[in-house]
Amino acid sequence: MKLTIIGNGVMAQSLAMGLIKSYEVEMIGRDINKLKAIKEKMPQIEIKQLEDKEDINGKNIIFCVKPFALESVSVRLVGTANILISILAGTRLDYLRKQVKAKNYVRAMPNIAASVLQSMTTVTGDLESKDIAMKIFATIGQSVWVHTEYQLDIATAVAGSGPAFLALVAEALADGAVKAGLDRHLSTQLVQGLFVGTASLLKHSHPSFIKDSVMSPGGTTASGYSKLEECGVRNAMISAVNEAYNKACELAKK
Ligand SMILES: NC(=O)c1ccc[n+]([C@@H]2O[C@H](COP(=O)([O-])OP(=O)(O)OC[C@H]3O[C@@H](n4cnc5c(N)ncnc54)[C@H](OP(=O)(O)O)[C@@H]3O)[C@@H](O)[C@H]2O)c1
């Protein structure tokens, strides 16, 4: 089966890096030089410059441009795609149906970890395409199907944006170690290992159990943890997810 990715940005490339392991992948973009540079990194993919009348008839499209570019790209698409999978944040299925002709429509929210086959992807849309879409995203990590776009927009805020939120935590933890006097390279290495180990624990344990297991009475963790609460880290995370969700809703109104 061949997948056609429209767009050649960060997400398009992350998806392609994972998908080329299981599918034929064609990438369509407006800048041939960027496409050529991508082909040098991923020789298996086909590249194609977006034409004024780009024939998408019968293709399985993964749409990866910015939400604001949807109209300017969709006016150039002719024919009826077999399936249109959009990863555009906050862009509703109803709107996609008006913009691009396809037999079935799906919205998916992968994250940047697709490039290392570890995306946490949320998917919704026409039930006829559920199996094919879930199969595609299973090749680049874990995926869950939700029944409403409301759920998908919340998933966008937590799992789509999440790598950036966790990257901030990772960077800050390393900065803390540097501030205490540890070399930067050691601090970074420790934090990398910390995230890998904690991710494994999270597969089997509730976060509060992990926290209670580490925090002994009057100990070092309890001291550090109370500082996190004092600084409002928990509330900052809750607010970050809610702000990102509000932004997705704002995009949907356009
Ligand atoms: N970044 C993430 O972690 C993430 C996660 C989940 C979903 N998403 C969604 O993925 C989509 C792409 O995000 P991204 O981070 O990959 O953005 P990006 O790196 O900026 O890539 C955007 C792509 O859109 C193309 N584009 C922009 N304006 C265009 C136009 N007028 N005509 C044709 N092509 C145009 C760009 O082409 P040029 O290279 O020629 O400028 C580029 O290929 C967004 O809708 C976003 O909501 C992103």
TrEMBL record:
Q: Does the keyword Zinc apply?
A: no
Gene Ontology cellular-component terms listed: cytoplasm
Range of residues in the leader sequence: none
EC assignment: 1.5.1.2
Ranges of residues in domain Pyrroline-5-carboxylate reductase dimerisation = 149-251
Provide the top EC class. oxidoreductase
In the record, biological process GO terms are:
L-proline biosynthetic process
- Its annotated pathway? Amino-acid biosynthesis; L-proline biosynthesis; L-proline from L-glutamate 5-semialdehyde: step 1/1
- List, alphabetically, the Gene3D superfamilies matched: NAD(P)-binding Rossmann-like Domain (3.40.50.720), ProC C-terminal domain-like (1.10.3730.10)
> Which residues does the record give as NADP(+) binding sites?
6-11
Q: What keywords is this UniProt entry annotated with?
A: Amino-acid biosynthesis, Cytoplasm, NADP, Oxidoreductase, Proline biosynthesis
Domain Pyrroline-5-carboxylate reductase catalytic N-terminal, by residue range, is 2-90
Q: Which GO terms describe its molecular function?
A: pyrroline-5-carboxylate reductase activity
**Top-rank taxon, per record:** Bacteria
Q: What catalytic activity does the UniProt entry give for this protein? A: L-proline + NADP(+) = (S)-1-pyrroline-5-carboxylate + NADPH + 2 H(+); L-proline + NAD(+) = (S)-1-pyrroline-5-carboxylate + NADH + 2 H(+)
Q: List the subcellular locations.
A: Cytoplasm
| UniProt function note | Catalyzes the reduction of 1-pyrroline-5-carboxylate (PCA) to L-proline.
* Alphabetical list of PANTHER family matching this protein: PYRROLINE-5-CARBOXYLATE REDUCTASE (PTHR11645), PYRROLINE-5-CARBOXYLATE REDUCTASE 3 (PTHR11645:SF0)
Record-stated family: Belongs to the pyrroline-5-carboxylate reductase family.
The name this protein carries in UniProt is Pyrroline-5-carboxylate reductase
